Amino acid sequence: MGDYAVATRDDATDWMAEYPAFGEMRSYTDALGCDAVAFTWRRMPPDTGGKGSYGHRHKDQEEIYFVVRGTVQFKLGDDVFEAGPHTAVRVPTDVFRSVHNDGPDEAELIICSPKAITDEAKTEKTETDFWPAG
Fold this sequence. Notes:
By secondary structure, this protein is mainly β. Helices cover 6% and strands 44% of the residues. Strands 1-2-3-11-6-9 form a six-stranded antiparallel β-sheet. A four-stranded antiparallel β-sheet has the order 4-10-7-8, with no helix packed on it. The protein is globular, with a radius of gyration of 15 Å. It starts with 12 loop residues before the first strand and ends in a 7-residue tail after the last strand.
């Protein structure tokens, strides 16, 4: 047998555990023992996500968001657009980003990126009041 790993939802760390009304954001990265790839599954109930809060970027992590189900709004820099099911969005390292589910249905996303090489606290930058009012 090869050197592989299997992880279930219960094995994955839920970054949203303290905020159950906002869905789940489960990182499978550590549960799988990944050296190079970060893999996150995000469940977003209606009217949840980053709208009204901050945008963020990762100095050394390009990210790909894949919308599995539902329609979500992306704010990338100054651009705001919607992405529906089976749409992939690549976000480069220098772009501030935020995702929000404005729709009436739950949405699901998969987020993939290279695993952070450095301490996340040193590489993530945030921008407050990222979404325009209204």
